[in-house]
Amino acid sequence: MSKTLTGRRIVEMNDNWIFFDSDIGVKKATSAAKKAKEKITLPHTNRILPYHNFDEKEYQFVSWYVNKFKLPADVKGKKIFVEFDGIMLAAEVYLNGKLIGEHKGGFTNFRFDLTNYVKYKADNILAVKVDSRERPDIPPFGNVVDYLTFGGIYREARLIITDTTYIDDFWACGLNVLKDDRAMVVQYDIRNEGRTRDIDLTFQLVDEKGGLVTETSKNLKLKQQKNISENIVVQNIPDVKLWDIEEPNLYQTKLILKENGQVIDEVQKSFGFREAHFAKDGKFYLNGRHIKLIGLDRHQNYPYIGAAAGWRLQYRDAEILKYELGLNIVRTSHYPQSPHFLDRCDRIGLLVFEEIPGWQHIGNKKWQSVSLNELKEMIVRDRHHPSIILWGVRINESQDNHEFYIKTNALAHRLDPTRQTGGVRCFRESEFLEDVFTYNDFSGTVQEPNHIPYLITEFAGHTFPTKTIDSIEKQYHHTLLHARIQNLQLSKQNIAGAIGWCAFDYNTHIEFGSGDRICYHGICDIFRLPKFAAYFYKSQISPDKEIVLEALDYWARGDWNECPKNLTILSNCDEVEVRIGKRKIGVFKPQRDKFRNLPHPPVVVDNIRAEWGGKWEDLTLIGRIRGKKVAVRKYPADKLPVELKAWVDHNTIYADGRDITQLSFMMTDKFGNICPYATGIVTVQASGNVELIGENPFALFGGRGAIYVKAGRKKGNAKLRLQCSSGHSAEVSLKLV
Predict the structure, then answer these.
(1) Are 318 and 248 within one domain?
(2) pLDDT in tens, 113-162
(3) How far apart are CA 107 and CA 149, in angstroms?
(4) Is 215 annotated in the active site?
(5) 330-346 burial, b if ≥16 CB within 10 A, otherwise e?
């Protein structure tokens, strides 16, 4: 797929790759690729794995990827680059058998110049050696690490074709955006690898409808083989719409090069006018408005496919965090994440704290040099995103290292003087070199800040790993821990906010997981399906957006160590009427005496009187707002599985051979609630042009599970038929366009 900006051509290179799962060398890889028929697409994981119970050594090997392409004749004399968004963990790139360059680090993009090595009348063979081993010379490795990195060319790739005079990079930032004298500073790097030229440079700010907001031009006298790095200031910016978490208004910035009136290059990036600042009073301000930050940490890993998730799954994660959990910030723990994820955060108004790769360990000087380069690549790649409000310039939970962290802070401030820095640590007696003291507080409470500004970046997590098959009492305490910490941090005006550990369960090394290579620290499981703690966050959403009414209970007497006496309800209703069978137990209000800072405290019913052996009846919850009934939830006494419920996140996907969506399924009772103790083997059969990825058959875990559905290349309809060994079945329709 080719995309043409005026003067620049971008050719997506996500199709027609040949994959070799061994270190066969560039000559054999090139030769074998010419004969290979089976081809793969990017993003690609070097090994499809079970969602748990696997050995991480399975993906830690050297592999080769080869792509054959032919250039059109009209690009002769142009510059030819190849760009990769992410290769895990190290890459050597060859063209037509010659080494072009090497890149260390799996979380940031890089590009190499192919110009002097391409053929114009014959096929070109691009070969990439991918080293996915945990090399101690490359962050985050060198010691134990609490996450898995997986392997492969797991993000997208492309060819970029430009004139010999081209825009290497540009970046625009706003000045005085809340005032009438607002302006923009545009920083640009122009490379001239040809003759002396007289070039006109034009900067444009364009609104979402394509309307021109402002334009500034400048003449450049470019000497032969000389590059320039300069700034221009754009004054008198007219009234603009601010980017905010509620109204994330976006613009496009464009930098255009012209010679004799003809465009020779153009680059465009998204942009948002906003002012974000952690202040000396301890508060965080967005556009001059105090906002308490409530968020979760996120790992980029997915079941089966590792980190090789395209735009649709990346978008979905951002949407879950923003819309389903009601958060206003996410921390990209512990590395830069997909550009697609950040793009979606920009679009929907989800704030981001992004940090460099690592986990507790700092290596030698060469290791630190790689880390500094990753920091540079992260900031240069992502500084145009208005959603990002803080750069993490410290290896997560590492010890102090004055010399190294002086360098990381200085580099971040030089590359982006508009944003503050943070450095996540797990001990309070730490040298404070950053702008914001970012701290992982696992005390079970909220400690008073020892530095200001102060942001809690982890809590709960490893102190309370919780599975969907755990006892309801453990799930109850896990949920109330999140509620208690967020309630406490909301009461402290000198704390900017709290980001909990973590959003989703994730795969990890045996040193940290539950024996099956999963850390069950999430408030959602690894399939992004909610645990009870997720409903706490969801219940804080305004009822104007969605009514939430969830019992923190499966409604089964034997789930508790003693006969249940209390019932906790997670809701954003004003009051909840509770009925057991035909008996009205009462009408109950949120527990504001214990959770006075939460928008919507839990509702506690304290007179259940469920004696052992007494009759067990259906539970009915009726939610009311301003006296009006707005929701009803029912929980049956028998808890018998009645239906296999199945759904896809998106009923329409693109027939491009790469698009992917999740198929989820669970056993439910007669009122549609999950049956967590339901067992069975679910088998999925597909008709239509789709591929199923994952464990199929799937053994239900906590009454539920999921696999992925990947699109083929033919448009049409697909049917997904699910059959459980219990005799229950379901069917889901999918359309490919």
Answers:
(1) no
(2) 999 999 998 999 999 999 999 999 999 999 999 999 999 999 999 999 99
(3) 9
(4) no
(5) bbbbbbbbbbbbbbbbb
Q: Identity (one letter) of the amino acid at 487?
A: N
Look up the domain containing 716 and give its range: 643-736
Beta bridge partners of 178: none
Q: What is the pLDDT of residues 518-554, one digit of tens each?
A: 999 999 999 999 999 999 999 999 999 999 999 999 9
Find the mean pLDDT for residues 494-503.
96
Query: What is the distance between the alpha carbons of residues 116 and 432, in angstroms, rounded to a whole number?
Result: 48
Number of domains forming the structure of the chain:
5
Which entry of 354, 374, 397, 695 is annotated as an active-site residue?
Answer: 397
Do the beta carbons of residue 315 and residue 325 sit within 8 Å? no
**Please, which pLDDT band fits residue 594 given cuts at 50, 70 and 90?**
very high
| Catalytic residue of the set 156, 355, 374, 458 | 458
Give yes or no: residues 316 and 241 share one domain.
Answer: no
- 695 and 562 in a single domain? The answer is no
Active site residue 38: no
Tokens standing for 426?
A: 């797990």
Using only C-alpha atoms, the chain has a radius of gyration, in whole angstroms, of: 27
Determine, yes or no, domain membership for 544.
Answer: no
> How many Cα atoms within 13 Å fall on the side-chain side of residue 656?
18
| Domain end call among 162, 189, 205 | 162
The answer to whether residue 543 is domain-embedded is no
Report the candidate in 280, 168, 187, 196 with the shortest Cα–Cα distance to residue 230.
187
CB neighbourhood size of 718 (10 A): 21
- Do 116 and 38 belong to one domain? yes
**Residues 282 and 238 both lie in one domain:** no
Question: Where do the H-state alpha helices sit in 161-248?
Answer: none
Q: Is residue 287 part of a domain?
A: yes
- pTM here is 0.95
Q: What value does the mean pLDDT take over residues 712-729?
A: 96
